[in-house]
Amino acid sequence: MTLNSQNLIGASQQQLRDVLASIGVPEKQLAQRTKQIFHGIYIRGATQFSQMASLGKDLQHALQKDFTLDRPEIVTEQISIDGTRKWLLRFPQPDGPAVEVETVYIPESDRGTLCVSSQVGCSFNCSFCYTGTQPMMKNLTPGEILAQIMVARDRLADYSGDATEVEGEFPSTGRKVSNIVMMGMGEPLLNFENVKQALLIALSDDGLGFSRRRITLSTSGVVPGIARTGDELKVALAISLHAVRDELRDVLVPINRKYPLRELLDACRQYTGLSNARRITFEYVMLKGVNDSMEDAQELIRLLSDIPSKINLIPFNPWPRTQYECSDEQTIAAFARHLHQHGYSSPVRATRGQDIMAACGQLKSESHSAVRLN
Predict the structure, then answer these.
(1) Are residues 133 and 252 part of one domain?
(2) Exposure of 287 by Cβ count < 10 A (0-12 exposed, 13-18 middle, 19+ buried)?
(3) Among 17, 41, 68, which residue terminates a domain?
(4) In this structure, how many other beta carbons lie within 10 angstroms of the beta carbon of residue 33?
């Protein structure tokens, strides 16, 4: 990636229109040219303006003088025994050293889910999460958020017109990257404006063309951002809950000290479009002897009794020097059964990519034993 060139990945249609106007594209052509470039970037996966034949040579040359569609460097790529893929991506910065984030792709028979990062590091210090051991370094830009999706689609040959296949397991029909979850490194609602711009491009028919039901934003509980997410994005919402009492959640998810359970759940009740057909997902990591008793299950049922909910139970994924252990299988099964008996969908999330530190709560900007790409 060339630092003295502006990358147009992540630019809104209005910003792109302004760029085209600044290099002399006539007013009457701006709308058409903007749509053509969006189509080239997001639908065709172009990495060079010369691949956009509809623009004409003169406009291609004018753009490539000062602008780029470069992807971040893939520092490492790891493929789990279960088909999960993890990329360590390096983004150069115009005013300092490059930064790195991790992005994970999880293939299943009916979908392919990409777990996207919104920040480098995290400021929340959730005690069970490996990412929280890395200091917060920066908010990712809209382009750096979208570039994670672009890299995954590049590597998986997932653009319109791609005829090649790569090694691995993929959904049987449709896109290989069919779902996006903002559940990677960082807290999306602390980077709301950049996340919003990236997701609006992901949702646009001229952009990546995802439906709102295929995008999920997960928050640890930044209450003011929850209403904005419902009003301005209307994507699926997931809440990292993990505890049913403030005194424990203060330890596990320290943002609870600022926005305690009562405020968090009130915001969930008021989430735009909430209904039995459009439930909030509550994520609950299972920690042995910490939050996995039948009393915890019963209190969880009480807390969520008037919120259309799905509860994802997440077996804890260990990481170096953690103080926690995963609840045993029998305890998790009993917890899930109790929730189910009281009318809640309560799937136990399958652990994916644990052998490459790609499972939930294991992401961090550092290389492990991986294949370095040239």
Answers:
(1) yes
(2) buried
(3) 68
(4) 22
- Residue 204: DSSP 8-state: -
Answer whether 117's CB lies under 8 Å from 137's CB.
Answer: no
What are 49's two structure tokens?
A: 């303006």
DSSP string covering 159-192: STT-----SS---SSS-SS-EEEE-SSS-GGGGH
Residue 215: DSSP 8-state: E
Comparing 271 with 5, which gets the higher pLDDT? 271
The one-character DSSP state at 313 is E
Count of all residues that appear for the chain in the document: 374
The token duo for 218 is 């997960």
More confident residue, 77 or 109: 77
In the set 115, 122, 268, 360, the catalytic residue is 360
R_g of the chain, CA atoms, integer Å? 21
Supply the CATH number for residue 353's domain.
3.20.20.70
**pLDDT mean over 69-95:** 94
Residue 1 lies in a domain: no
Strand-pair category, 96-107 with 85-93: antiparallel
In sequence order, the 6+-apart residues with CB closer than 8 A to the CB of 357 are: 86, 130, 319, 363, 364, 368
pLDDT category at 373 given cuts 50, 70, 90 is very low
pLDDT for position 355 = 62
Residues 134 and 89: their CA atoms lie apart, in Å, by 16
Residue 93 pLDDT > 60: yes
- 166: containing domain: 73-372
Mean pLDDT of 50-75: 96
Percent of the chain with pLDDT over 90: 77
Q: How many domains does the chain have?
A: 2
One domain, residues 248 and 336: yes
- The arithmetic mean of pLDDT across residues 87-110, rounded, is 93
* pLDDT bracket for residue 164 (50, 70, 90): very low
Q: Which residue out of 100, 102, 187, 283 is catalytically annotated?
A: 102
On whether residue 262 sits in a domain, the answer given is yes
The answer to whether residue 102 is catalytic is yes
Residues with Cβ within 8 Å of residue 153, at least 6 apart in sequence: 45, 159, 176, 177
Among this protein's residues, is 360 annotated catalytic?
yes
Does 125 have pLDDT greater than 90?
no
| Claim to verify: residue 173 and residue 113 sit in the same structural domain | yes
